[in-house]
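Study both lines:
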Amino acid sequence: MKTVEFKDVVSISGMGGLFAIVAQRPNGMIVRPFGEEKSRLVSNRIHTFSPLDKIAIYTDDDSIPLLDVMRAMLKADTEENNTPVSPKASSNDLKKYFRSVLEDYNEERVYVSDIKKIIKWYAILKEYDLILFEDATEDEAAGGDEEE
């Protein structure tokens, strides 16, 4: 089985969970739900595919890539013992947690439903080790530490 990377993960409208892209077809994508071995064709006429590496979260000034948010959540989880709250937690608890990992997220544009979805996605991505800090620094590693 092909190794899955963050860039190969999609959310599909109308279907819960996350999916690994197996192959692309003119009429849709062949995807495999995480935790399952069987792949299936999902039509692009019925569903919309959202690659996670193309999703950004609004901040007060601009936006931040979802992977960076996931990395902040992983750091808080592993280094600061700040585990994510349950997606079923109260709206206030969800917002408080999200503010603890992304201080400047835009509360008017990032809804509680978005936070719930991000927490659910984080659990899946963490389980399959798809949140890697190395991805952000691969180009820098090849060229050395030029920004420091």
In short: The longest helix spans residues 112-127. The helical segments are 66-79, 91-101, 112-127, 134-143. The CA atoms of residues 90 and 112 lie 9 Å apart. Residues 135-148 have pLDDT under 50 and may be disordered.
